[in-house]
Amino acid sequence: MIKRKVIILGSTGSIGTTCLNAIRNGSLYGExxxxxxxxxxxxxxxxAKEFNCPYFINDNSNKLKEFLSSLDGDIVxxxxxxxPGLEASLIALNCGFDLALANxxxxxxxxxxxxxxxxxxxxxxxxxxxxxxxxYNLIKAHNKIHSVVITASGGPFYQKKNLDNVTVEEAINHxxxxxxxxxxxxxATLANKGLEVIEAGFLFNLSPKDIEVTIxxxxxxxxxxRLDNGAVYAQLxxxxxxxxxxxxVNDEVNPLYNVVKPxxxxxxxxxxxxxxxxxxxxxxxxxxxxxxxxxYPIAFNAANEVAVGLFIDHKIKFTSIANITxxxxxxxxxxxxxxxxxxxxxxxRARAIALKGF
Length: 358
Description:
The structure is a single chain. The chain has a six-stranded parallel β-sheet, sandwiched between helices. It has helices at 14-25, 41-51, 61-69, 84-94, 105-120, 130-142, 168-171, 181-189, 191-203, 242-250, 281-292, 296-312, 320-329, 340-354, and strands at residues 4-9, 30-37, 55-57, 75-78, 98-101, 125-127, 147-152, 211-215, 221-226, 232-236, 273-274. Strand 5, helix 5 (105-120) and strand 6 form a beta-alpha-beta unit. The termini are far apart. It has 14 helices and eleven strands. The chain has two domains: 4-128, Rossmann fold (3-Layer(aba) Sandwich); 132-233 and 269-354, RNA polymerase sigma factor, region 2, helix turn helix motif (Rna Polymerase Sigma Factor, Chain: A). By secondary structure, it is α/β, with parallel strands linked by helices.
């Protein structure tokens, strides 16, 4: 057994906490060699003492690069939430680390640019999202695929009408997963699934027509692949992020045992339903953004982040999240970005448009 040296970005969030728990209980044979968070200094300091490693409050990208450059590690786990995760991913790659990537915005915003950077630097990007982790491992097992199927729980408001007066507390009450506030709201609107569609398009070089989404309330099947011969293969496991996190950080170095509770088929019901464009307009907008490419995926992410923030601050209705995002995407975002600076320019431009009137 080889102990994996892992550096965790977003150490106090749900992804970081899950990884640390896996190391504590032995699911992941690993050693923490660095901890990073944007806040929660006291919690970070306590974790650093427990795992006997240095830590850093990420308030400066130049200092983050210095910090990561000083560390010994096999892989960086990026669990940072939102757009700030992109720069951290690029810094980690340029510091010579492989990347276990839970920050979907890195791919949604970075697109081909970050994937080409990883190739140039001869670094791996291993997806941590349960859906993309499943696809990643299914493709490794079956090599050539025809298309993929990504599952969605449907969130707390599936098939419910009149959502104008939905509260923040209701929106974050996800029926299956325990997550942060922003991603929980994204799951309620299916913007999260839209981001995953865009991410899958870039990660696996798929066109929008080759990415299906199906409503699967049980969250047991995380993704499926279709082969040219008509066969469908799926990855099933309990809704627990420990498995994709441990799998990505371990990267097939050590055998894994009992990472999650084995799935029981004694009383298991699996259902699938077609998603409705009227019910989930943000998912439809994401498909269009992926089809258009250019900077449209960047604009989709930025507009949604701004709108979700306004909803959390009680400045707009839940249903206005999709309206604001749609309005932003009506502008011209056809420019293809070839640098981090160009990406951030388009990101800020989209945010400024979204914030007009607030």
